[in-house]
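Late entry, written up from scratch paper. The run itself happened at the end of the previous shift, but nothing got recorded in the book at the time, so transcribing now.
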Amino acid sequence: MKRTFCLLLAAAMLILTACGGEGEIDDPKAKPVVDNSDTVVMSYEGNTLKSGMYAFIFSALKTNYLYLLQLYGDSDFVEDTETFWNMKAEDGQTFAKSVTDDINNHCRMLLICKKMAEEYGVSLDVKAEEAVTDEYNDYVSSYGGEEALDVFLARYGIDTDELTEYLRMKQTISVLQTKLCSAGGLCEVKDEDVYSEIGKRYVKVKHIYLLNSKYEGDALSKAEELLAQIESGEKKFDDFAELSDDNAMSEYKDGFLVDLDETEENYASLAKGLEVGKCGVCKAENGAHLVTRCEMTEEDKKTKFDTVWGELADKSFSAVLENRYGQVELNGDELGKYDIITADTLQ
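Output as recorded:
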């Protein structure tokens, strides 16, 4: 649950598109979300985030977190209630505390990256400008037009121009990270480091999955029987391909890459410990795996390059930002008014 929770928080920081459908617009006469939308909540090196924009971000990220957890997590237990928000993750923090902390860090990041973009001469490229336009148009479509969107945003004391500025600040984070993590940048991610990480995290394997139900409840014994035939030279691994009860052998005839950090522990341990060309067995859910390790090619490594580069860039870039987080001035009295449990969600 902890890993899912953290991944969804990260995704929520990025997605932030309107979740409502056309016609689902709040009552224009509804009570404003904030008393004074111009109160400064955070500031950094001359850049400020005011309470109206902060309240909107707070609602948007709360909405997206709930949506993503319902979509990719366990939808049966996700409720916008005090009981749900006070549930604890594995680190002991309540969901309410974790989400609120991430919202505040996202807002710090907005201000820091806006200033750093000025320092390093970074501006939005064509792709980023298109992303801003697309996301803005999503909001317009969801709320039935710009006028209706303005009515909705007025509850937060902001307008479509300020929404657009926020979307631009959000895209600035991505553009700045790419710039600073590229060759010669402040937090450069080198190719050799990426390939080194790929070598540590991935192994190439083929496996044959055997179901307990086909072997009197003991697929592991059957897998060991097959392994003995391979090790004696009587059979080759591929000779048993048709016995597999999943599509791994038919879809990945040359093998596939396994992320050791994301794979079931006993499978990952077996795959990592095998020498190339050697075989082994391990228990699996409802059965057993017969596994052989394959040689990873340069082409295999290239397929994971962008993913791993992005992950290393995230770590490197985050470290730079964290050094500046403490320099962001916070209005504690104003921040204390926001409660994730009672905060609005975007309809």
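The chain has two domains: 2-181+309-335, 194-296.
(Scratch paper discarded after transcription.)
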